[in-house]
């Protein structure tokens, strides 16, 4: 099949882990399984233009971010293309123009690597499909997730919705270290419209890159126990997604967030990635939950921002609480309202 030139455009969302991926082996194989909610509003939109070229000796691409050339992202993309070439042998036959933008503010401290790598992987799979039109949808999405994983581990959870598991877990036979899979069982209605309001506590550059963070788990004194705990927590969550137990959900999700940070505090070198406002927010959430019995909880990524998670039918009260009591702890009062979503979309 010959495909000379053209373009595709995909959007891919960010995701928020409930059981955290922290620690990896070679080839972006996770040290433990993780599970996430796919988000809906925080996404990357990437257009991939391609044109057959003469010289097939090297990768050739231009990179635009919000319409402007972006040289500093190029090494990351170059490395990504090198890693995935064995899966997409046609990459050196084309010149690519990768034109990308995010729906969330760039210096928000929200990692765009998951949505960005997922959006690029989807586009590359569209080109592969143009070359091999007989491929099935299942193959398309599975391989897109595998490619995204090689760009940024957590990106493999951004291809599909609404709840995605990545990493071998014995109770989920379809699960794999190589790609994310949709949670295979029915999800209780308590969770299907979950809300995630992201409080932008610190919009600066990440203090510790996730690459460095994952590496610190290699010599970590608590690593093995932590990896075992992630399996246990995922097992519990599987039951909770089916039975709708919100109290049990909260315990696991908050414990996972604090454990992620505890791992960083107990590695060598050690880091504290929360800041005073992160703790103020956590304490305010605990107080509000105790007083109102509303099942709102928090989770954290490898930074100071707080994700506030709550069921849709509590939105009005929780949003009022956020405006009254939490926005003051956000940088410039900024926060982003998001919710569970369905994964990548061809535009
Ligand atoms: O995908 P990476 O390598 O940037 O790692 C992300 C790790 C966490 O966001 C902290 C946890 C997770 O599972 O998403």
TrEMBL record:
GO terms under biological process: isoprenoid biosynthetic process
Domain Diphosphomevalonate decarboxylase-like N-terminal: 12-171
Keyword vocabulary terms for this entry: ATP-binding, Lipid biosynthesis, Lipid metabolism, Lyase, Nucleotide-binding
Molecular function GO terms recorded: ATP binding; carboxy-lyase activity
Segments traversing the membrane: none
Record carries keyword Transport: no
Domain Mvd1 C-terminal: 198-326
Protein name, UniProt field: Diphosphomevalonate decarboxylase
Record organism: Flavobacterium xanthum
């Amino acid at each position: 099949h010959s495909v000379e030139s053209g373009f595709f455009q995909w959007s891919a969302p960010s995701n928020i882990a409930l059981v955290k991926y922290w620690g990896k082996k070679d080839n972006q194989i996770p040290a433990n399984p993780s599970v996430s909610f796919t988000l809906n509003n925080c996404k990357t939109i990437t257009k991939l233009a391609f044109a057959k070229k003469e010289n097939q000796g090297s990768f050739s691409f231009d990179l635009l971010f919000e319409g402007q050339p972006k040289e500093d992202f190029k090494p990351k993309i170059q490395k990504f293309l090198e890693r995935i070439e064995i899966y997409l042998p046609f990459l050196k036959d084309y010149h690519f123009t990768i034109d990308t933008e995010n729906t969330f503010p760039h210096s928000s401290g929200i990692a765009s690597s998951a949505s960005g790598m997922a959006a690029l992987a989807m586009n590359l799979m569209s080109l592969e499909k143009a070359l091999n039109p007989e491929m099935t949808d299942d193959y398309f999405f599975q391989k897109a997730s595998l490619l995204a994983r090689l760009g940024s581990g957590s990106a493999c959870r951004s291809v599909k919705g609404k709840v995605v598991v990545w990493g071998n877990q014995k109770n989920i036979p379809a699960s794999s270290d190589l790609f994310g899979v949709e949670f295979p069982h029915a999800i209780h209605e308590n969770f299907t419209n979950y809300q995630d309001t992201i409080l932008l506590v610190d919009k600066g550059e990440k203090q510790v890159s996730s690459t460095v963070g994952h590496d610190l788990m290699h010599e970590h004194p608590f690593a093995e126990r932590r990896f075992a705990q992630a399996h246990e927590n995922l097992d519990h969550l599987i039951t909770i997604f089916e039975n709708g137990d919100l109290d049990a959900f909260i315990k696991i999700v908050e414990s996972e967030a604090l454990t992620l940070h505890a791992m960083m505090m107990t590695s060598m070198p050690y880091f504290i990635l929360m800041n005073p406002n992160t703790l103020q927010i956590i304490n305010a959430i605990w107080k509000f939950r105790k007083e109102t019995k509303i099942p709102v909880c928090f989770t954290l990524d490898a930074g100071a921002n707080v994700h506030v998670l709550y069921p849709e039918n509590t939105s009005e009260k929780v949003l009022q609480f956020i405006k009254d009591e939490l926005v003051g702890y956000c940088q410039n009062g900024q926060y982003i309202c998001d919710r569970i979503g369905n994964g990548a979309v061809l535009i």
